[in-house]
Give the backbone structure.
Amino acid sequence: LNNLNLTKQERFMALYQPQHARLSRFVQTLVWDKEEAKDVVSESILIAFEQLDELKDEAAFLSYLFSIASNLVNKKIRRKKFWGWFDDIAAENRADNSNSEHTLMQHELNRALNKIPQKQREAIVWYEISGLSMEEIAKLQHLSVAGVKTNIHRARKNLSQLLENKEEKHLTQMKGVWYE
Amino acid sequence: MSKHLQNYFDAAKQQAPLLTEKEVANLLNAAPKVVVKKRFLNLKRFVFMSTLSVMITAIWLMWNNQNVSTIKPQATINLKQVAPTQPQPNNTNGLIEKPVLNRLQLSQTKPQQVTFDSLNKPQAPNKITNWFEPQNSNSYIEPQEPTREYFNENGELMLTHEELAKLGIMTDGNVLSYENVVDTSSKWIKPIVAEISDTGFYSFKLLVSEKSSKFTHRSINRSEIKLKSKSFWPAVIETKTDRDTSYNVVEYISDRQNTNKIFFNEIKPFCIPVRVEFATQLKHTSYLFWFKAQQSFINELPVKAATLLQPKVDQVDIREYQKILDSYSTLKSWTKLKDMLGEKKIDQLQKNIIKLDKEGYQKLKISKTMNSFKYVNNIYEDQTKRRLIISSKRKQQYIEIGTPKYNITPKDTFIQVVALTTKSFDYSMFFYMNNNALSQSKTLELNTKRFAKECDDLIPIQVTSNMVLWFRPTEYLKNVIKQCNSNQ
């Protein structure tokens, strides 16, 4: 692309377009609040665009973009963990989603993902939902392909436990309580 | 990979992109500067660093002052150190140089007056040399666990004040307090029992003074409190005075009249008793805190006591405990409705239950799958500034009624939910406004009667295969149902 005499914006768009849906899915899966997810995507795009000149190898654009997004997402998750997960406004923002049958499932997945370690969480979302290859994830996480495979395997195991044993966990939570 | 998990991934894959390409292009056109290059020393950092250094110095000085008081007074002073030094001519040529003393030398050579008093007074050690000298080994004594009995003849755990404080039980002068929850606004008026259904966290505060001992049960909003992250709590607090014995079951049991019976027959085997003696000048009271036998609890105990209790913890199945508790919990006890309605009426009501299509549920703000649903609305019956969230996951196992939000504006007043029941009326839950002065059982009775009276006029909407929400027949709801019928 460097040889094609493109403007910075055109060059960025050419690199960004194939990753658009992948990035969006990654952020949406991990950041539950739709508005917050939008913010993260926009901010990732802006940072990537602004520092594009510093990117020496255009083949590394995917790693570059997802690293930025990953940092921003993790920052959000850290804050969420500190301030508490339960957020009605976030729930309502999401409830507007037209496909409401999937909304509950997506919410459950989001909650479960936030309970597993960061490396596993990112690996499984990138692989299963964003559709990145093992090699691409290995580059992003600075790991070997075998390491990524292990992370994905562990993530699946943890998620299955969290999502399938939900019933048992909810036993302790079941109460009809009046809030004054 | 299990199909179950794959379903979740498939659901996540179906999410539409958040921004369109046009929006991205617009974003780039109007790109604001996001990355700010940071200088190493900006004003904010300078202020922060100077404050930090002042704080560190202050802490160091405080620490040093404390050390001074712990060091034994020195009985002698090395007189050589305080003796004035004689100016020595160092000129070998025999010329006498005028002794020039700078300020530093003066301070070093100034002779000190040595009196009898000053010899007996503790001397402050040289602070700078203290940094490099090894610490006096007598100033810190390694805590050793004394050899003592942890259990009395009744098998009750006996702990010291410090060990009790670790569990959150504090005896301070005339007040015994137990807390594992702190109010951010520091406005505790009453001792509190709180249950936050979202996290399953259960916390309470107990305050006993000479004049009164109160155990008040109140549910509070999660945002009001800061949790002290103690994941265990006593199931029961037993008070034994000379006159009487009383039991306060902290767990959420609706059948409060029979709590003593429930406790003795069923809950007790799951608990570990901790004896707390509370003695003031006026009275002597003895409390038993019955903690659930769980790992997080014994982790807070001294090592020896914990190892002695470990077999009991391993033996106890907390899930069994929870099952017992659930059998007495609120939903289970609300079974009178079924008897009140009678079989005929139940049959008739079941026929009236309405199933909506996707659009209909969306219009009523209900998101649902086969076994679970979530309903969010800003009002419930008679109360305009509260938010109601009912969600259920599989076979009525999880129901939460949401937190009050004071900053929300009341909307959606066209949908009014009154109750949640199972199809067979085994379980029910009412959203009428409660009179706080009434007891829970009385409120329940009134609500059940009220519902039984007006259920014919209500509109039952099926939300899961087994659960029904009962709405007031508003125009909005009627329109939604009409539209659904015409679509079908």
Notes: Chain B has 17 helices and 19 strands. The longest strand of chain B covers residues 271-279.
